[in-house]
Amino acid sequence: MVFEWTAPARIVFGRGAAADIGRRAAEIGRRVLFIRTGALPATGGTVEAARSALAAEGLEFLEAEVRGEPEVEAVDALTARVRPFEPEVILGLGGGSAIDTAKAVAGLLAGGGEVLDYLEVIGRGRPFSRPGVPVIAVPTTAGTGAEATRNAVLASRALGVKASLRGPALVPRLALVDPALTDTLPPAVTASTGLDALAQCLESYLALNARPWTDALALEGLNRAARSLVPAFRDGSVLEARDDMAVAALLSGICLANAGLGAVHGLAAALGGKFPIPHGVACGRVLPGVLSENIRAMIAGGAGRTVPAKCLRLAEVFLPARRGSEKTRMAALGDRLSAFVEELELPRLSAFGVTEADLPVLAEAAGRSSSIRQNPVALDEKTLIGILRAAL
Ligand SMILES: [Fe+2]
User: Fold this and answer.
1) Contact in structure between 95 and 47 (CB atoms under 8 Å)
2) What is the second-level CATH architecture of the domain 10-182?
3) Partners of 154 in the beta sheet?
4) Does pLDDT of 48 surpass 80?
5) Which pLDDT tens digit goes with each residue over 203-232?
C-alpha cells in the first residue's frame, strides 16, 4: 500500500473559536495579510470582528478583498501587490474563493514566479519547492473544505476552464472553524455549499485512491450532511444542523485532499470554467446522475467487490429503511439523491445559460480534468453528456 496524509498542522473547531483570530495570528507572525471575502452583508460583522482582533494584538495588517471565484490574472496581480509588504502570516477568511486565494498567494510569495508556472492542466505544472507563507484559514461557509486541502482552484476566463495549484506548500497551517460564522448564510448559499461538502465526501468515499481512514471520515461527513443539510437550509437558526455541516465540510476537505474526487467534480470544473455557476450548484445538479451511472457500472462488474459494498453502505446513509434487495437499494440511491437536491430548490443548469449545444464540449473538458481520474469507473463522453442533459 502506498499513501500520503495531508491535513492542516492544527485544527481548532468550535462556536466562538473565531474570537481568537488575533492571538492565533500573533503566534505565527506580526505582519498579516488579511484576505477576505467580498461584500456579503452577512459576513460584514465577521470581517469587522477579525479586524478588531488583529488590531487588539497590535499586528500590522494589509487587507485584500476577493470578489467572486479567483482567477489566474487576479491572483498574480494580488501577489505582486502584496509582495513588498512581506507578510509573515496570511489570514484567509471567507468561502472557498477567499481561502483558495490566500493559499495561492502563500505559495506564490514563497516560491516566486506566476500562477501559470505551477497550474495543473493549463499551466506548466511545476511543483512548489518551498513551504508557503503560513495560512490561517477561517471558513464562513460550510462547503468547500478549502481550510483543509492542499489545492487552490483558479479559473482562467481566457481558456474557459478551472484548474488547481496543488502541493503540500498550500496546506493551511491552521484551520480555524467556527460554525457560528455560517449561522447567517442565506438558504441558497447553505444549499449549494452544503451540496459541495456532501459531494466531496461521497466522491472521496468512492474514489480509486480512497483508504480505510478516509472512508471513516467521509462516512462521518455523509451522515452529518444527510441528516442536517435540509434542516439547515429550511431554518438557518438550527445550530446543531449548522455545526454538523461545518464538520461535514471540514471532513470533506480532508478526504478530498487524501483520496481525490471523481466525475462530479470533473463536470463541475468544466461547467464552472464556462458558465457563472456556483460550484456547489454544479456539483449538486450532476451528483445524482454520476452516482447512478457509477452504480450501474459497478453492478455490471466494472470495479471489483468492495465498491458495491460501499454503495450498500451509502444506501444505509441515504435510505435507512432497508427495503428490497441489495441491487434495488443501490439502484434507488440516484433517485434518492435527486429528491434530496430537489428539496434544496437548486437551480437547474439551463438557468445559467447552459444549452444542449454546449454539452459535448463540457463532457470533453470534464474528461480531461484531474478530478475524474479518481472516479471509480471510467465514464465515456456519451455517458457524461447524458448526465449533463438530465441536469439542464
Ligand atoms: Fe467541491
Assistant:
1) no
2) 3-Layer(aba) Sandwich (3.40)
3) 163
4) yes
5) 999 999 999 999 999 999 999 999 999 999
- Summarize pLDDT for 230-260 with one digit per residue, the tens: 999 999 999 999 999 999 999 999 999 999 9
Contact, 57 vs 23, CB < 8 A? yes
CA 147 / ligand 1 centre spacing (Å): 12
Indicate the range of 71-85, 300-314, 362-376 predicted with least confidence: 300-314
| The three grid cell numbers given for residue 74, joined into one nine-digit string | 487576479
Q: How would residue 380 be classed by pLDDT, with cut points 50, 70 and 90? A: very high
Residue 179's contacts (CB-CB under 8 Å, 6 or more residues apart) are 13, 14, 15, 142, 239, 242, 243, 245, 246
At residue 329, the pLDDT reads 83
Angle between helices 187-206 and 279-299 (to 10 degrees): 30
Task: Provide the CATH number for the domain formed by 187-391 in this structure.
Answer: 1.20.1090.10
**Domain ranges across the chain:** 10-182, 187-391
Distance 265 CA to ligand 1 centre (A): 6
Q: Measure 30 CA to ligand 1 centroid, in angstroms.
A: 33
